[in-house]
Automatic annotation (TrEMBL):
Cofactor(s) needed by this chain: pyridoxal 5'-phosphate
Gene3D superfamilies attached to this UniProt entry: Aspartate Aminotransferase, domain 1, Type I PLP-dependent aspartate aminotransferase-like (Major domain)
Taxonomic superkingdom: Bacteria
Keywords: Aminotransferase, Pyridoxal phosphate, Transferase
Pfam families for the chain: Aminotran_3 (PF00202)
InterPro entries assigned to the protein according to its UniProt record, in alphabetical order: Aminotrans_3 (IPR005814), Class-III_PLP-dep_AT (IPR050103), PyrdxlP-dep_Trfase (IPR015424), PyrdxlP-dep_Trfase_major (IPR015421), PyrdxlP-dep_Trfase_small (IPR015422)
Record's keyword annotation contains Transferase: yes
GO molecular function: identical protein binding; pyridoxal phosphate binding; transaminase activity
Protein name per its UniProtKB record: Aminobutyrate aminotransferase
Family: Belongs to the class-III pyridoxal-phosphate-dependent aminotransferase family.
Length: 454
């Protein structure tokens, strides 16, 4: 199916341009310091940008738009490993052929953005690819949103309409749901809503406790039973991230989640799973598929690695006309890339016990565990995560120590970030394109940084 203008000349030029772009981007394939005379270029740009934006930046980073695989170049000419991927979207790494193709194909179309009123083929094809990937569940529909927070807002509106007037929500401690007016109340960390009025009624219960796995379900169910006892028929749903990203990649077992979900069904509550960050990054395309929870989910929100955001929902939760709308589905380039990415992940060897995600998980957790027992004993502690979502603790795992480590890691050539609170953890969102040679170099830098900081 042709999208946009196409003839032999356009196809020939597009193929030549694709090859030229990819060959140029492949020149940026290794660590490098700043170019002579450009050492202060990042600071100069960011200082001006800070004045316009109204706040500073965590990293001294301005992208040049050049890079390949796990590597990204800054405007000062330096090249670093990108192990955070803009906190999730860049799952395949930099200048992946699918991304380049998606951009070039979108350039043949007549507009930049695709909307809800007058649709294009890109959102229809991406929707079909997503729905094909959840055939083992009861999820039947998908609605695009402008961000992960708005996808969660859409989910909440659907649930409220269906359960009206039961508008209270149950969420989990250490949850992060976004920064919209509604989702900031679902988010557990009070620092993210200082000075904000409470907009929605949310009660938080304990999540899976890594330090007490056997007692976790009883603790959660006890808290849940207490809530429904005191607020009978007031709750619409239970909302959770199966992999708690902001908490430092905390997750439970299948038995734990089944126990919680069976309780929810017995108490006539819908089950809402937030996969905005975990989508595509666990050992199955969806985390709920990894845990074998397909039969339970009623509504699932996705984003980041999808290159778009939206809400999957059952026929039962299909809203009445007028409840959900919006101008944008997304850019044609992003929607085109999203379809390519999902198809690539589904058709490639990424999932299952022998898939790429499991390999990355094993490589990083095994090596981190080894360091914690040997050369970095006392410097690196806990290490955990799943698939391409990896976290570990350094030193006393305080925010001050972890920030110092992350900043030094950045200076030494690796971009990461942090997650969690008491303890604070170093967070990696790994690109799928890492080779064993890359991983070897990354761990040499981790050891060097640990020695320098700790």
């Amino acid at each position: 199916m042709t999208i946009g203008v196409s003839n032999e000349e356009v196809l020939d030029l597009s193929n030549k341009l694709f090859s030229s772009i990819l060959l140029e981007q492949k020149k940026f394939m290794g660590l490098k310091g700043p170019d002579e005379g450009k050492e202060n270029m990042n600071e100069t740009i960011l200082k001006e940008y800070e004045q316009d934006k109204g706040r500073g930046f965590f990293f001294n980073y301005v992208s040049s738009g050049r890079g390949h695989g796990p590597f990204t170049e800054l405007v000062d000419g330096s090249i670093k490993y990108d192990l955070i991927g803009a906190i999730g979207p860049n799952l395949l790494g930099h200048s992946h052929p699918l991304y380049i193709k998606a951009h070039l194909e979108a350039a043949t179309s007549d507009v930049m953005m695709c909307g809800n009123l007058l649709t294009h083929q890109e959102p229809q094809q991406l929707t079909k690819e997503i729905l094909d990937s959840v055939k083992g569940s009861r999820l039947k529909h998908f609605w695009f949103s402008g961000s992960g927070s708005f996808a969660n807002d859409t989910a909440l509106k659907m649930l409220w309409q269906k359960k009206d007037p039961a508008h209270k929500l149950i969420a989990f401690q250490k949850a992060f749901a976004g920064r919209s007016i509604a989702t900031q109340d679902i988010t557990y960390n009070p620092d993210y809503r200082v000075g904000q009025p409470k907009s929605i009624d949310v009660d938080h219960v304990p999540h899976f406790d890594q330090n007490d796995p056997e007692g976790s379900l009883d603790k959660t169910l006890s808290a849940l039973n207490e809530l429904v006892k005191n607020n009978k028929d007031q709750y619409c749903a239970i909302m959770l991230e199966l992999i708690q990203g902001e908490a430092g990649f905390v997750y439970g077992t299948k038995e734990y989640y089944e126990g919680v979900f069976k309780w929810a069904k017995e108490n006539n509550l819908y089950i809402w799973v937030d996969e905005v960050q975990s989508f595509g990054r666990t050992t199955e395309l969806f985390a709920f598929q990894m845990f074998g929870l397909d039969e339970y989910v009623d509504i699932v929100t996705v984003g980041k690695a999808l290159q778009a955001c939206g809400t999957l929902f059952t026929e039962e939760l299909n809203p009445k006309p007028g409840l959900v709308a919006g101008t944008f589905n997304g850019s044609n380039a992003a929607l085109n890339a999203g379809r390519k990415v999902v198809n690539y992940l589904r058709e490639g060897n990424f999932y299952g016990e022998d898939g790429r995600m499991k390999y990355l998980e094993t490589q990083f957790l095994t090596r981190l565990s080894s360091l914690a027992k040997t050369t970095c004993k006392g410097k690196i502690g806990y290490a955990g995560g799943v698939g391409s979502m990896i976290s570990f603790e350094v030193g006393d795992s305080t925010k001050e120590t972890t920030t110092k480590f992350i900043k030094k890691l950045y200076e030494n050539g690796i971009i990461s970030f942090m997650a969690g609170k008491d303890p604070v953890r170093v967070r990696f969102l790994l690109p799928t394109c890492l080779t064993d040679e890359h991983i070897d170099e990354i761990f040499k830098i981790i050891v060097k940084t640990a020695d320098e900081v700790l």
